[in-house]
Design a protein that fits this description.
alpha/beta; Rossmann fold; eight-stranded mixed beta sheet; 25% strand
Length: 247
């Protein structure tokens, strides 16, 4: 395994990108991991290493670089949730799209990475961003997975479920069935929109799972069985859409 942190300087600010890939020359298909709202931390690096071991070059941009909010965050502190909400509010879709494009430009200059067609997966706010970026990047995205997401279906004009016309990717949605951020009614509206566009997808509720169930550090919500099932779904999705390369 080869891994590094690399800093990108752009008009949107200095952003760190964690990169993990197998040993060997590649080129390895590029996957972008989209962070949750608990800040960049070792737990997210370990998730990226897992996917890299499948035969991919995984990029993890620190989307909270403008806010300077780093994990792991202590949710018992009274000031933590306001900081998270402020960082999320400041991360507009255009800013997130620009950050991911900057990370992909980094990969494009790396002979060990093949960024012509890519995969995306994300957790929590990153789950929403996965769907939004599948729309924004269009045919470049071959597969996208949205895991315990929030904000996929809202009453706002920019609700992601209302903007699916450019999506060419196969999609997976891993939903906690006890998640107030992704209710059955909201997921039904999402499915209707996906079906109307003829988009290939799988939407799966995980019984007894709570928002954040993929994060082992969150012992109050982590669900091992559901997490392992979702990792299997993501691995299969990426294999179908992007043939992995092994050293």
């Amino acid at each position: 395994m080869i891994e590094r942190n690399q800093r990108i300087e752009s008009a949107r600010g200095a952003m760190d990108v964690f990169i993990a890939r197998p040993d060997g020359p590649g080129p390895f298909p590029v996957i972008v991991q989209l962070m949750d709202a608990l800040g960049m931390r070792e737990e997210l690096h370990e998730h990226a290493r897992r996917v890299a071991r499948w035969g991919y070059c995984v990029l993890v941009p620190d989307l909270f670089h403008r806010a300077g909010l780093k994990g792991p965050l202590d949710l018992t502190r009274p000031d933590t949730l306001p900081q998270i909400r402020a960082a999320m509010a400041a991360l507009t879709d255009p800013l997130a799209t620009g950050d991911v494009k900057d990370a992909l430009a980094l990969a494009a200059a790396d002979s060990a990475a093949d960024a012509t067609r890519i995969g995306l997966y994300g957790f929590c706010m990153g789950g929403r961003l996965a769907l939004m970026l599948a729309q924004q990047l269009g045919a470049r995205v071959a597969a996208a997975a949205s895991v315990h997401p929030g904000g996929l279906v809202t009453q706002e004009p920019d609700s992601p479920h209302q903007h699916l016309d450019r999506i060419a990717a196969e999609l997976y949605f891993g939903i906690a069935d006890q998640d107030a951020h992704a209710t059955p009614a909201q997921m039904q509206a999402l499915e209707h929109a996906l079906q109307a566009r003829g988009i290939a997808y799988q939407l799966e509720f995980h019984p007894g799972a709570l928002h954040g169930f993929m994060m082992p550090s969150r012992t109050d919500v982590y669900r091992e069985a559901a997490a392992q099932k979702v990792w299997g779904r993501i691995e299969a999705l990426l294999r179908r859409a992007l043939a992995p390369r092994h050293a």
